[in-house]
């Protein structure tokens, strides 16, 4: 005699949900990570700048920069650091002649200035 046992397995499923609690700033961070950020480099060309001043004291560099900006507000100024000195350079001149014009105008206030050849940013176009 064979006994067959039939077992019926029943599972009582439970329904439920999952709630995620998160800081709202996470969505902002995820969004920022997905943005495409263009490179922060400007195109450079060969040109000239005037080195006005160099010193280890940045306060003196900033003072010289302020004096130059008063006289030539439309000429860009740049401060570079190469240990142990700060260098104040001005202008984005395409030709040496353009740089020499400005140098001649500032020679009384900055007698040790000189024109140097280096990579420059594209000069601004003034709407006249």
Can you offer a commentary on this structure?
The chain has 128 residues and is α+β, with helices and mostly antiparallel strands. It has a domain of 78 residues: Sporulation related repeat (Alpha-Beta Plaits, 2-Layer Sandwich). Helices cover 27% and strands 27% of the residues. It is built from 3 helices and 4 strands; from the N terminus they run H-E-H-E-E-H-E. A 4-stranded antiparallel β-sheet has the order 2-3-1-4, with helices on one face. A hairpin with a 2-residue loop joins strand 2 and strand 3. The longest helix is centred in the middle third of the chain and has 14 residues. The model has no long low-confidence stretch (mean pLDDT 83).
CATH architecture of the domain at 44-121: 2-Layer Sandwich
Overall shape: elongated
State the helical fraction: 25-40%
- Strands of the widest sheet, in order across it, are 2-3-1-4
Q: Which spans have pLDDT < 50 for at least 5 consecutive residues?
A: none
Query: In whole angstroms, how far apart are the ends?
Result: 112 Å
Order of helices and strands: HEHEEHE
Structural class, please?
alpha+beta
> What is the top-level CATH class of the domain at 44-121?
Alpha Beta
* Beta strand count: 4
| Cα-based radius of gyration, to the nearest Å | 33 Å
CATH superfamily of the domain at 44-121: Sporulation related repeat
Percent of residues in beta strands?
25-35%
Main β-sheet, in a few words?
4 strands, antiparallel
Average per-residue pLDDT, rounded, comes to: 83
Number of helices: 3
CATH fold-level name of the domain at 44-121: Alpha-Beta Plaits
């Amino acid at each position: 005699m064979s006994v067959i046992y039939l077992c019926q397995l029943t599972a009582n499923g439970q329904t439920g949900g999952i709630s995620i609690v998160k800081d709202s700033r996470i969505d902002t961070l995820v969004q920022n990570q997905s943005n495409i950020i263009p490179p922060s480099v400007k195109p450079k060309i060969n040109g000239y700048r005037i080195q006005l001043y160099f010193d280890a004291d940045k306060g003196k560099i900033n003072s010289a920069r302020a004096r130059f900006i008063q006289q030539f507000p439309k000429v860009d100024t740049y401060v570079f650091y190469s240990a142990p000195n700060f260098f104040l350079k001005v202008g984005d001149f395409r030709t040496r002649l353009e740089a020499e014009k400005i140098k001649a105008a500032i020679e009384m206030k900055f007698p040790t200035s000189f024109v140097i050849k280096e990579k420059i940013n594209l000069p601004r176009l003034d709407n006249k």
